[in-house]
Design goal:
The chain is an alpha+beta fold and 613 residues long. Helices cover 15% and strands 30% of the residues. The strands form five sheets. It has a nine-stranded mixed β-sheet with strand order 1-2-3-5-4-6-7-8-9, with helices on both faces. Strands 12, 13, 16, 17 and 18 form a five-stranded antiparallel β-sheet that branches. α4 packs across α5. It is globular, with a radius of gyration of 26 Å.
Length: 613
C-alpha cells in the first residue's frame, strides 16, 4: 500500500516526461543543458555567464523515495534533475520538509558544507518554525540507512572526491577553470569550475520550491554553510530570492593575498586563468548584482570567509540592507547568537513578521598623529546588553588575536583610543549584543541574545613590516582568568581554545617555558594541550603539537613545560610565536569527564598560564 502511494505521489510531482536517471544515458547533444563554448565565446563577466540559463526550462523529473510524517511536519526524500551534461543526466537528492498546515509557506533552500550532507532534522526544525525547506545533498554522501538512491552527477563531478562521493570521477576538488574529461567545456571556461555546477543545482532547487503546492513562490530564500555559503553567494543574483544568509563562506576577493606577504592566504596559485576566475566565479563579481537583503554569518577567525573580506564584500552591494554577525575567537563555528539571526532574517523578509532587527552599528575611525580613535553608536539602546570593541595589528585575518579594548561610553557612543604603529595595519570593530524578547530554542542550543557587528574600520599602510610586531611585547602572561574566558572560544563548553599566542603584546621568546598553575583539588587529572600552526603564513606552519601530563595531589602547583616536550608527527620542535591556536583540556581520570574550563569552578583548577624563564 505504501509503495503504491509513493508511486502515485511521485507521478503527481513529476513535471515532464524526459527519462530519469538510468534511462537518461546517451542524451543527444541537442538536449544538453548547455551548448559548448568555443574559445572566442567564453563569457567574461557574470551577467553574460548566466543570461541564457533558465532554471525553469528543463523538467525536474521529481521522484519521491520516501516520506515521513510526525509532529505536524511532512518530510520527503526526493531526487530531481539538475540537467543533462556530456550525454548523461545529473540528479541530486534532497530532503523536502514543510509544515502540514494546508497553507502556502515561506521557503528556503539550504546547502550543506564540504564533507557534510543534507540532514532531515534541520528541515523538521524549520518546518516547526513555519518554513518549507529543501536541503540539497550536493556532495552525495549517504543520507538514510537502507536508502541507496542518492545524488548521481553522471558524467560530470563537482564533488570532493571518492572519500565522500562513491561515484566520484576525480580524486578531489577541482580548483581551476581548465577543461578535463569531466568538465562541461573543452576550453578554459567558468562552467568548468565545480562552483558553477553547484550553482546550477542551487537554482534548480529554487525551481523545485516554487513549484510545490505547500510553498509561496513569492517568498523564497537561500542559505548555506561553508561551501554552501559560497553557493549562496553565487545564487543570490537569482531574482526569485527575497533574502539570503551565507554562513562562513561566500566572501569575495579569495584570489587576493592578505597584506604583508602572508603566503598561502589566497587561492591565486591554483589558477592559470586567474582573471577569468575573478570576473566570473569569485563572489566579488556577484555581490554588486545582488538585490535582495543579505545576512552574513561567520566567525572572527574563519579560514573560509576571512574576516576582512566580509565587509569588503558587503561594501559591493548597491543597497544597505545587510548585516554581519561573527562569533569572536572562533574559526568556522558560529554560535547561538549568530544562528538565531537566520530565524529572524527569514521571519522578517520571507514571512513579513516584524522583528525590529537593529541596523548595522555605525562606526568611525579618525587619526590624529600616532593615535586613532574608534567610535561606535549602536541603535536601540533599550535592548542593548553590551558593546565590545576589538582591535588587532596583525594582517593575517585567519589567525590574528582580537584584543578586547577598554572602551569608554558617553551618551550612547562607545569610543577607544588606539596607537597607530609605523608599518603596521590597524583593524577595529565592535560586537553589539542585543536582548531578545524571550529565550529562543534553536536546532542546536538556545539563546536569549543576538550579536551584530559594526562596520570594520582599518588603516592599512602600503608597506607592512611584520618584524615590527615583535617590538610590541609587554607581558608574559597568557591568561590569569581575571576576565573569565573573554579571550577564548569553546565548542563543547568544556575545553577552551585561544589565538592569544598570536598577540604581539605577548613575549614569546623561545628561551621561555610554558607555566600552568593548577590546583587539582585532590583529584587525579589529565592535562591535555593542543597547539597548531595551521593558517599562519606558509613558512611558519609547523603543523600540530600535543602534550599530555597527569596532575594530582593537594594544593596549587606549577606545571612547567619545555617547547621540546610537545609531540609532533614530523619530529619538529614547537616555537611559541608559531602557535596559531592553543587549546586546553583537563579530564577527571576517575569520571573520564572533561572539566568545564569555561566556568568559575574550572578556573579554580586552571588558574594561570604564563611564559616564564
Amino acid at each position: 500500500m505504501m509503495k503504491s502511494l509513493l508511486s502515485l505521489l511521485s507521478a503527481c510531482l513529476a513535471v515532464a516526461s524526459l527519462p530519469i536517471a538510468a534511462e537518461a544515458q546517451g542524451i543527444p547533444e541537442s538536449q544538453e543543458t548547455f551548448a559548448l563554448y568555443r574559445a572566442d565565446e567564453v563569457p567574461q563577466n557574470v551577467t553574460d555567464l548566466w543570461k541564457t540559463y533558465d532554471a525553469r526550462k528543463e523538467p525536474l523529473n521529481i521522484q519521491v523515495i520516501q516520506e515521513w510524517k510526525s509532529e505536524g511536519v511532512v518530510t520527503r526524500y526526493i531526487t530531481f534533475t539538475v540537467g543533462a551534461f556530456k550525454g548523461a543526466e545529473s540528479r541530486i537528492a534532497a530532503y523536502y520538509s514543510f509544515p502540514d498546515n494546508g497553507k502556502k509557506n515561506a521557503a528556503f533552500v539550504w546547502s550543506h558544507g564540504g564533507g557534510q550532507r543534507a540532514e532531515r532534522g534541520r528541515g523538521i526544525y524549520f518546518a516547526k518554525q513555519g518554513f518549507a525547506t529543501i536541503d540539497i545533498n550536493w556532495l552525495g554522501r549517504p543520507m538514510e540507512e537502507g536508502i541507496e538512491v542518492n545524488t548521481d552527477w553522471g558524467k560530470v563531478d563537482p564533488t570532493q572526491g571518492p572519500r565522500f562521493y562513491a561515484k566520484a570521477l576525480r580524486e578531489g576538488w577541482k580548483r581551476n577553470l581548465q577543461p578535463d574529461e569531466f568538465s562541461i567545456d573543452s576550453v578554459p571556461s567558468p562552467r568548468n569550475a565545480n562552483w558553477f555546477l553547484l550553482a546550477v543545482a542551487a537554482r534548480r532547487a529554487i525551481t523545485f520550491l516554487e513549484q510545490q503546492p505547500e510553498v509561496d513562490p513569492d517568498r523564497l530564500g537561500f542559505s548555506g554553510f561553508s561551501m554552501g555559503g559560497m553557493i549562496t553567494a553565487l545564487t543570490a543574483i537569482d531574482a526569485r530570492l527575497k533574502a539570503v544568509v551565507p554562513f562562513v563562506g561566500g566572501t569575495g576577493f579569495k584570489y587576493v593575498d592578505f597584506p604583508g606577504g602572508i603566503e598561502g592566504s589566497s587561492i591565486r596559485e591554483h589558477f592559470q586563468d586567474l582573471e577569468l576566475y575573478r570576473k566570473t566565479i569569485d563572489p566579488s563579481a556577484y555581490w554588486p548584482l545582488v538585490q535582495c537583503p543579505v545576512l552574513f554569518i561567520s566567525s572572527s577567525n574563519d579560514f573560509h570567509s576571512a574576516f576582512d573580506r566580509i565587509d569588503q564584500s558587503m561594501a559591493l552591494l548597491k543597497h544597505r540592507d545587510w548585516r554581519v554577525s561573527t562569533n569572536i575567537h572562533h574559526n568556522h563555528g558560529p554560535g547561538p547568537e549568530q544562528w538565531v539571526l537566520l530565524n529572524h532574517w527569514f521571519d522578517h523578509y520571507l514571512k513579513g513578521t516584524p522583528t525590529n532587527l537593529p541596523a548595522t552599528p555605525p562606526s568611525t575611525l579618525s587619526v590624529n598623529g600616532d593615535q586613532a580613535t574608534f567610535t561606535v553608536t549602536p541603535e536601540d539602546p533599550d535592548r542593548l546588553v553590551n558593546t565590545e570593541i576589538y582591535f588587532s595589528h596583525d594582517p593575517n585575518a585567519r589567525t590574528r588575536f582580537w584584543n578586547r579594548a577598554a572602551a569608554e561610553q558617553s551618551e550612547g557612543t562607545w569610543s577607544v583610543d588606539l596607537p597607530v604603529q609605523d608599518a603596521l595595519p590597524l583593524y577595529v570593530f565592535a560586537l553589539c549584543r542585543y536582548r531578545l524578547d524571550q529565550m529562543q530554542i534553536l536546532e542546536r542550543g538556545e539563546t536569549s541574545t543576538l550579536v551584530l557587528n559594526s562596520l570594520e574600520q582599518s588603516i592599512v599602510p602600503e608597506f607592512i613590516d611584520l618584524e615590527s610586531l615583535k617590538s610590541m611585547a609587554n607581558t608574559t602572561v597568557v591568561e590569569d582568568f581575571s576576565h573569565g574566558i573573554q579571550d577564548w572560544g569553546t565548542r563543547d563548553q568544556r575545553s577552551i581554545k585561544t589565538y592569544k599566542f598570536q598577540s604581539p603584546f605577548l613575549d614569546r621568546s623561545n628561551s621561555k617555558k610554558l607555566s600552568l598553575t593548577i590546583d587539582s583539588q585532590g583529584k587525579q587529572l589529565s592535562l591535555r594541550l593542543n597547539a597548531g600552526s595551521k593558517f599562519l603564513s606558509r613558512e611558519n606552519n609547523l603543523g600540530d603539537f600535543t602534550y599530555t601530563q597527569s596532575v594530582s595531589g593537594q594544593g596549587v602547583q606549577q606545571v612547567l613545560i619545555n617547547r621540546s616536550d610537545f609531540k609532533n608527527a614530523d619530529g619538529k620542535t614547537l616555537e611559541w610565536s608559531k602557535i596559531a591556536t592553543f587549546e586546553v583540556t583537563i579530564v577527571d581520570a576517575e569520571s573520564k569527564e572533561k572539566l568545564d574550563l569555561t566556568s568559575q569552578d574550572g578556573q579554580a583548577v586552571l588558574q594561570r598560564i604564563e611564559l616564564v624563564e
